[in-house]
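User: structure tokens for this one?
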Amino acid sequence: MRATLLALFAAAAFVAVDRFRDMDRTHTVRVETRTEHSESSESWNWQGNIAAGGTLEIRAISGSIRVEPASGSQVEVTAEKSGSDLANVRIAVVQHADGVTICAVYQGEDDDCGRGGDHTNVHGDVPEVDFVARVPAGVGLRAASVSGDVTASGLTAPVEVNSVSGDVSVEDARGNVTAHSVSGDVSLQRVDGRDVSAQTVSGDVDFSGPIRAGGSYQLKTLSGDLSVSPDGALDARISVSTFSGELDSDFPVTLTRSGGESHGRRFQFTTGRGNAQLALESFSGTIFLREGGAGAANRAQP
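Assistant:
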């Protein structure tokens, strides 16, 4: 049964990208194995060990980040610098007790490549640095780019990916996921975690994967559509929030009182046993709640 509800209500704008947590910086080890292809490009690579439960962090200013599973037990990171004045950017590696942080550091910028540091004080045209990383099973990821797409696939530990201006994508992941963008789409496909957050200010949000008992799923966009395609049964307490959009649901929608009561222009309802929390918010777009893998493909249907 498909129920289509139109709900108008005032919703506060939200900030979609979390700032990294401040932590103490440790020693910096730079490993710069370079292969010069021309005056406008340069390669860099690093290999090392991170124990299961540790985290690889990658931070870029201008450039993409792509992360995929490693075939062996080592972490492998390559970077491709491109553009002019390549000498103005270097790659810094910080090793600490629970992982490794790798940053693109530009000339004139504060050398702040410690865990969770912030190093975005760069002005004008800068060379691009595109990262590709391969991560063993059990190693977590924290990756962020100011201007560039961030993608991760096939990981089996917590994932946190962010972009200010770029799309963010996580696929085939087992573990908790946080994925935020300011200007870009956020796509979580076949994600199996109990704590999932996907947010963007300007873009669409898509999610597919199981809704686990006891789980919390926060999916929000300010200007864009939101599509949710649960894998398996949907047993959840669902809160819906939109200002000028719609809820288009394949699931029966029955508003309830006392915790499920409609409050002004926000409302809640429960499906199945209601043993997970699913929060859906779109300020000006349509919220699609789909059965059985229909997912984002249905978003464009009238």
